[in-house]
Every structure is written in C-alpha cells, then in structure tokens.
Amino acid sequence: MLSRSxxxxxGIRKTYGATIAVDDVSFDVREGEIFGLIGPNGAxxxxxxxxxxxxxxxxxxxxxxxxxxxxxxxxTLQNRIGVQLQEAQxxxxxxxxEAVGLWASLYKRPVDGNRLLEQLGLTDKRDAWFMTxxxxxxxxxxxxxxxxxxxxxxxxxxxxxxxxxxARRAIWELVxxxxxxxxxxxxxxxxxxxxxxxxxxxxxxxxxxxIDIGTPAELVRRHAPEQTVxxxxxxxASAEQFQRIPGVETVIGSDGRFTIRGRGDDLVTRVxxxxxxxxxxxxxxxxxxxxxxxxxxxxxxxxxxx
Amino acid sequence: MRGLLTLTWLEIKIFVREPLxxxxxxxxxxxxxxxxxxxxxxxxxxxxxxxxxxxxDLPVLAAxxxxxxxxxxxxxxxxxxxxxxxxxxxxxxxxRAHTILLAHVVVKLLFTALTLGAxxxxxxxxxxxxxxxxxxxxxxxxxxxxxxxxxxxxLIASVVPTARFAQPVGTLLLYPMLGVSGLFIxxxxxxxxxxxxxxxxPLTYVxxxxxxxxxxxGWLTHIGDMAALALIFLVCTTVSARVFRWE
Lengths: 306, 247
Prior knowledge:
A: 6-stranded mixed sheet; 4-stranded antiparallel sheet; B: mainly alpha; globular
C-alpha cells in the first residue's frame, strides 16, 4: 500500500548564471518515510531541498509540499515543517536554551523545549554558548530547533557531515526516532552508508539530474546485482566445481582463497550447496553484498568520493 | 512582534557577552571625549568664554563617533551573520526578514543611547559649568541621526561580501565623510568641489542637526537637515531591500 505523498516535485530546474544546478528533477516523498536525496557534493541536493523548503524559487517546474506551494505559501508552510540547513550556525554566544526559547516563541504551538533537549541529550548543555558545543551537539541542537514546532515534515541537509562515526550513529538513532513519531523525514547525504542504513527510499542525483529512485535494496538489485562469495579452502581442485555453479561469472583464486562473483539472489545458497555436495574443506567463508556505493559507481560511471 | 522582542532581548544579551565589543562601542567614544575634553579644557577666566571646540564641537564629534560606531558594528554583525549562515537559518523560520534587521537596529539604538548617557555623565565632571545643553533634545537628535545613517550601513552590508572586508570598507567610506561634514572646517571655507560633496554627504546633515540642537536651536530650524536624513534613510533602505543578500 502506498501512503500519500507529502512532497511532490515535478520537473524543476534551477540555474545560477550559466550553471545549471538542478535540471528536470522530479520525485515524491511519502508520508512517514525517511527519504534520502543522495549524491556527491555539488550534485544539486541542497538546491533541490531549498526549493522544496521555500527558501529558493525554481526557475521552472512544480513543487507541492503538504498541499502548499512553498514559494507562495512560505509562511504557512514554515509552521508545518522543520528545517535543518547545511553548515548553518547560530550566534556564537547564544545559549542552547535561549536558542530553543527563541524558536519556540516563533511558532503557534511549540512543544516543550526542555523535554526536547532531554530527548536529544542536551540537558546539561542548556546554559552553554553555541560556540562551545561540539559538532555533534550543534547538530543535535539544530535537530531540536527543527522539531520545536512539532512539524509534519522534517528536512535534514547533510546532517552528519563532519561528525565522527560515534556521533553519526547517535544522530541516526535520533532520525529513526523522528520517523517513529509518525513524521516524514526528507534528508540529503553524500554518505552512501548513511543512506543505506537510514533511508526507506533514496533518489540518486548527479550533476543536477535524478538518476534513479527506489529502496536501497531495489537499487542494488537493479544496478549492482553482482554478488561476491569468498571461500578459503586448501582444496585447489574446488575452483572447477565453483565454476560450474549456475550464475557464477568469475572465480579468481590465489593462496587457497577463491573469490566467486556472479548474479542471482540464490548465489550464496548455491555456493554453500556446492561446498556441501563436494565435501570441500572450508576454512573461511565470507559474502560481500553490493552497496549503494557500487550502485552509484555503476549508474554514474564515477565514484561518489571524486 | 513577540519574535522581535525575544530576538532583540537575546541580541542585547549576546552583545554584552562579548566584552571587547562593549568596550569598543560604549567605552572608546566616552574615553576619547574625556581625554580630548581634558586636553583642551579651558582654565581660569577662559572658562567664561570657552572656545567652540570644547563647548560644541567636541560633544558633537563624540556623538557622531557614537553613531558611526553603531553603523560600523551593524555592518560587521550583518556580514558575520550572513557569512556564518545565521541570517539564512533565521530566515528559514516564521521570522520575517525585516524583523531580524529591525532587532539589530533597536539594539544599536539602545547602545547609542547608553553611550551618550555615559558621555554626558562623564562630561559633567569636568565641563564648564555655564553650559546648559538641551540633553533630551540632543539625545533625540542623535538617535534620529543614528537611525537614518544605519540605513547606509545596510547598503554597505548589502554589497560587501565577507565579514573580513565589512569593517575596513565601512571605515573607509564613513570616516572620510567627517572631513567635509563641516565639523572641522566650515563648509563655506571648503573648495567648491568639496562643498558640492558636502551637500550629498549624510554626515553634513548630522553635524548641522546635532550642532544646532546642542546650541539650543529649535527643531523647526533644522527641519531641512531632518528631511535630508529621512530621504537618505528612504533611498538607502529601498536600494538595500533590492540588493540585500541573505547568504
């Protein structure tokens, strides 16, 4: 069952001078999901998101957010969405609780700021100046500010960029918590691991254009269906048996370690069956799944890390 | 409206948390006023007919320095807020753009009034006793002037891209205006080209208004100065509203 769309973007284009930042971009964000716009830096993620937020007007195309036109109805919309901007800052010497208080004063029905700070683990930083917060604490504060008006839809732009892995994981947990409260999350990231672990659906964007949209698993099946099984065995003759498995494309062996590549969902099962049937002595067995990283490489022809 | 009050109060607190900024804004004009006043302090019989420099021009100069420091500090703050993405972050809330800017203007005017108050208090200790300046009118004149020339600050802030350039560009544009404003050299004694320049320099009208009010002129005498300042305000605000960049 498909839930209703909270964001509908149809054929938007945005240019800055001679540069085409975003071209013919269309996608939907569905209610209650975490939707990710993924691509390298400069691909047009932020421009697209800021058009949807009503901070920029596209040159062409249609955008509908919660049934509103983000440019025309920007002030109505701002009461119903929460926004975290890429590389945003606050006043250096503003205290955490003052920022939350200011934001709360701007909306009609704010949630309890203290509870929000507690949920985001910022209670003991309430009186700290913004400039003294760590990167992760700043991002958690920005999440708090984005949630202060109990929004239906939350925008998170490059939320975990520059954070260490531990802080990143903590933030992911918070984002899942936002979804668990029934809200829709629209995020951008250039981290494929983040998209894979967090997003229900992703749209891959490169050089201003959407390449494909789907769940991470769908995209992997569609664009990087290769599977890899690595088997370590002292039995040198087994290479021939591996080669005969249906769906196997290449078997590369060295030092008693065989890397078996092929296609098909049951490739791993077949390899296991082959090992069992032929009584091959196995000392190590590993599978490598393709990731969104491989998908990106396959669909764009270049690595996301440039 | 509630947003304006909350934001203004916050910005006051934030400003006070930076001691150097407060010393620069409030302390330096007052200190200069006191030091210069002492240097040129008339003694003995000279007290009775103290020169214009001390009785009028020094207070007017100090007042203008207060106003200029308010303008400069506004330019810098806007540049820093824009560069750091603070303006953009605030704009992505129901806060209206003009509310954000107005909050800063209100903060600057409050500190202008505070500095002027400190200056007048400091002046009372050593100033010739026979001077009775219309303190209330002078304060109003200074606040009005500051409010109008802050619009020049917006215009400069609209076109200066980075915080690092904002302060020097502002200083270079604003302080030379003092030279032709008639404060040091009467406009009539300036070369013709400089005289023409004097008429388009906003500070000329500020000097004329402040000097007149300090000497006890009525407001009506300076209606022209005020009209000129109001016009400058309108022009600068209109232009900067068109060219202002939030990021």
